[in-house]
Design a protein that fits this description.
- Belongs to the CsgA/CsgB family.
- Pfam families: Curlin_rpt (PF07012).
- The chain is mainly beta.
- It is about 5% helix and about 60% strand.
- The protein folds into two domains: about 50 residues; about 220 residues.
- The strands form four sheets. Strands 2, 3, 5, 10, 12, 18, 20, 22, 24, 26, 28, 30 and 32 form a 13-stranded parallel beta sheet that branches.
- The relative contact order is 0.10.
Amino acid sequence: MSKTLYVAAALALGAAPAFANSVTYSSQEGVNSLYLQLQGTGNSVGSEAPANSSAAQTTGTWQSEKSKGFGNTTMDGRPVTDLRYFAYTNVTWAQTATSSYPTDYSAAKQVGDNNRVNAIQHGNRNALNFSQGSDTVFEETISRAAIDSDRVMDFKHGQADDISLGRDLAAEAAYDRQFGFTQTFSRGAVTTATGNLLDVDQYGDDNGAVINQLGDYNVADLYQSGGNNQADVLQAGDSSYLEANQIGVGNGMLVRQYSTNTAMLNQWGNDNFMEVYQGDVNGTTANASSVEVTTDGNENTIHITQNGDFGGNSIIVNQNGDGNEVFSTQSGRNSGITLLQDGSNNMFNAVQTSNMRQVAVAMYGTGGNVYLTQR
């Protein structure tokens, strides 16, 4: 049985403003379509996820033990010897915590196959929490690892300036052995729910969208225009597709696609952040996932992880602007990374594991840095 529901709450001409509309929606059977349009401030579709289901990305710095000694260097072109110094490394680490993510919280929900949602929100501080597909529990992973480092020689008695010796991979490996971890959790069955479509548009500032699609051959299309907007998208199953676009300043995007999926992600503006994970929960059964990212602006940061022993994964990143950073980790044979950065003071940091891997990097501008590890 097919059902169609239209919901609208807007600002009528000459009428009082429509504030804080709330939509609770649940469909448990049949083929359903929801067309939703909300205009105003503080509108919500579905309730927020429980506190223990949030996903957070944190970073910090760990300093290795200092070693002291004497060294040689030059000052003003003249050799200087017997300089007392301390050598140490600052290791930058990142921890991603994505804890249990049950789909039975009070999100707006469609359970089953071939459902459709078209949602539009105009205004500020709006929220959308929507779940499509299997009505099951999905759990994720927690991990911590070193992502960068800087080896420093700190000279004493004012005899010379401190000298940076660049990245210290041995110190990063020591950090990972001592503090790094990856812990995965059972996800439960993700079956039977296929062919769902979710289309979300949000216009304004401080909006948030949480999207879960559990099953195969699902499609999500997200558009956010404004500042300080946040998107949290999870797709679990095979052959799903995500297109997400953010326009503005200070936006954030967290994307997790489990198994074999495709993502097209775009951010236009400054000071945006993006975190992408593709692969199976245990990292062994996924293959041939692909992500293509485009950013246009300054001081944007991208983190991409692709896991899966079967390989065939692809990362393509195009960045235009200054002070941008890309961190990528990729596993699986016959996988590849393609990067284009156009601007000044940009950075690309890539780690590839397994064999038959390819990397193509093009940087246009000044002050760019490339760090590549293949093992």
